[in-house]
Amino acid sequence: MESFVKNIKASQKVQLISEFAILIQPLVELARAKEPPSQNKYREAIAKVQAGDNAWREQVTKFTTFAPDIFYRDESSDISHVPEIYCRAIRDIVNQPNSQDTLSQLQEQVKIKDEEAKNKFFEYVDRIPIEWEPVLFEANTPFTSYLRIKEAIILGKYRVHYFDRYLNTDFFDLYLKSVDRNVSIRLVTTAGNAEYGVTAVSVLSKLAAKEFSDFKLIKVDKNDLHDRNLRVDNKIFLLGPSVDQAGIKLTNFGPSENSTEAHEKFDRIIANGHVIK
After folding, report:
1. pLDDT 10s digits, 80-129
2. CA atoms within 13 A on the CB side of 43
3. Can you give the pLDDT at residue 184?
4. pTM greater than the 0.85 cutoff
5. Domain limits of the chain?
6. Confidence band (pLDDT; 50, 70, 90) for 138?
7. How many other C-beta atoms lie within 10 A of the C-beta of residue 241?
8. Cα radius of gyration (the chain)
């Protein structure tokens, strides 16, 4: 039960990230607009963000509460105030006397504040200590298993490496499409055939390589891989079956050894593999 609760916190983190993106979306859209928006458009967007602020704070409190006697008050306050500070900064810019004459410059300043808000949000959220615990998925729970594994993957900020002899195209649709395009992707598999491996995924890999800033499909000898392993940033997870088979039968999923030596072993597998162009 304890491991379930801890892993639920990872799920709440994913949900909070999604809700933050939805909350500030009105301002983000103006920052990305092709034509510089008017002052009133910014004021309207600020009002929309403020309208969702109370519900937002409730979700932050839920995420930062681990037990009746464990509440990360300071971290909760920092996270909660990000949208408010963001809106205040935009309002101050919009209310400058000459802002109407320099809408393009105003938009550039909004873009800067947008990045600052996102960076602060992730900085504060990452201060909440979330430790993954091993979990045993019961048979006939593929959807639950999929959600838990996906939560681990999409939290990756700079790398997602997946090692699987039998990698197939399902991984792209089920998991990879939700990953930020600036995250470094390494898919390590064997030559395979029409059902799995390089032969099966090469076409999708070429498309993914055009979309992700750092994507590589790597072919290795089948003797170099046995268990399925997933590396998300500095966390290594061990998975019984391939990700598309998780939960169909009794399935183990959870953190593995994260030592420097462990990471070096996976680095060597990647370095000794053949990058598929």
Report:
1. 999 999 999 999 988 886 655 688 888 998 999 999 999 999 999 999 98
2. 8
3. 96
4. no
5. 2-125, 135-276
6. confident
7. 18
8. 22
Domain 135-276 grouped into CATH 3.30.870.10: yes
Query: Comparing C-alpha atoms, which of 39, 43, 29, 26 is closest to residue 103?
Result: 39
What's the average model confidence in pLDDT over 206-220?
96
- Phi and psi at 163, nearest 5°, equal -115, 115
CA distance to 36, 85, 92, per residue, from 78 (Å): 31, 10, 20
